[in-house]
Amino acid sequence: MFNTKYDVAVIGLGAMGSAAMMAVAKRGYRVCGIEQFHTAHARGSSHGQTRIIRKAYFEHPDYMPLIDRAYEAWQALGSEINENLIHTTGMIVSGPPNSDCIRGVEACYDAHPLPHDKLKAGESRRYFPQFSFPDNFIVYHDPLAGYLQPEKCVSAITAMAVQNGAHPFVNETVLSWQNLPDHVEITTNIRTIAADKLVVAAGAWAHGLLAIPGLHLDIWRKPVFWYTSSHIHDYQTSFPIFFVEFDGGGFYGFPAIDESGLKVAEHTRAELVAHPDELDREPGPDDEAPILNFLDRMLPDFIPQRTQFSVCMYTMTADGHFILDRHPKYKNIVVGAGFSGHGFKFAPVIGEVLADLALNGATDVPVDLFGINRLIKG
């Protein structure tokens, strides 16, 4: 029997779930969250030292209202905890003229008046001499971009949720849930929880928990590398974040913010994982070669010395856009899933949307792009 019936329960306390829990708690409702690992763990998609936040959104111009609100929300949270959460470095987006990232960022700049610089490859070397872009590449510079530190952010969000009365249950695994006539019942390996509404924000585990017929989410294994160099100082505070479409892939990286050095990874290639519990977290024989080739071509003076390796997971929808919607069968169940490798920056606004949908059944945030029915195959 349950001691407390919650207004809302949240499954998964990574970036999105913890933000949903915080948003519900701040509105004065009884809320709990269930997390199978510890707070700010490294088993899913909300870890790895740094995450990009940027205004120039080449994935789709309709993300702009969300990114504007996300900037405001991160700044507000930073004020609450008396700490700056957005570290502005600027960002380079580069590729051939017809590449997806260049066409996408140009569509964004056409639709929204954002500050930026457009450079030819030769011009860019005057401002960013570390790079050696091919002559046909276009280079855009976004001065508003920067990075978030995911472990610090998730810890701050969870702490703020607790401060407002939320109950997180960590190191606790959800075994099942069922929608009963007057409540949702969630059974874990430790307890049974009752709630009026349920938010499922379980990252790569969401697909198995939801089991919605016709809905498919792929899980991608994504290796991440850190490197130092004999002249690492050239790649520190004045060095921008970058995303470069090159050699059939999209490569991104961050300045060296500590002794681990430059962080580099590839964004667009798929290595499918059958189940998140089966993720291979060790370096594979083919993981590093594309990264080293990219560094050799684009940052030829860097001379990398590997310091660290990690793996995260992308939970991919068919079109690369999120799911932010109510369950197609149960209107008291809300789904936040399929963040497709670019969701972290939106966490606080996604938390607000999930809270809106759970508590009110609708949201004022424009989320038509993220309806679940577009992905359900009959």
What does this structure look like?
- The structure is a single chain.
- The chain folds into 2 domains: 168 residues, 3-Layer(bba) Sandwich (FAD/NAD(P)-binding domain); 155 residues, D-Amino Acid Oxidase, Chain A, domain 2 (2-Layer Sandwich), CATH 3.30.9.10.
- The protein contains 8 helices and 19 strands.
- Strands 1, 2, 9, 10, 11, 12, 18 and 19 form an 8-stranded mixed beta sheet that branches. Strands 6-7-5-14-15-16-13-17 form an 8-stranded mixed beta sheet, with helices on both faces. It has a 3-stranded antiparallel beta sheet with strand order 3-8-4.
- The chain starts with a strand and ends in an 18-residue tail after the last helix.
The CATH architecture of the largest domain: 3-Layer(bba) Sandwich
Indicate the mean pLDDT: 96
Q: What's the CATH H-level homologous superfamily of the largest domain?
A: FAD/NAD(P)-binding domain
Termini distance? 38 Å
Based on CA atoms alone, the radius of gyration comes out at 21 Å
Mass-distribution shape: globular
Q: Low-confidence spans: pLDDT under 50, at least 5 residues?
A: none
The top-level CATH class of the largest domain is Alpha Beta
What is the total tally of β strands? 19
Strand content is 25-35%
What fold name stands as the CATH topology of the largest domain?
FAD/NAD(P)-binding domain
* Share of residues in helices: 10-25%
Number of helices: 8
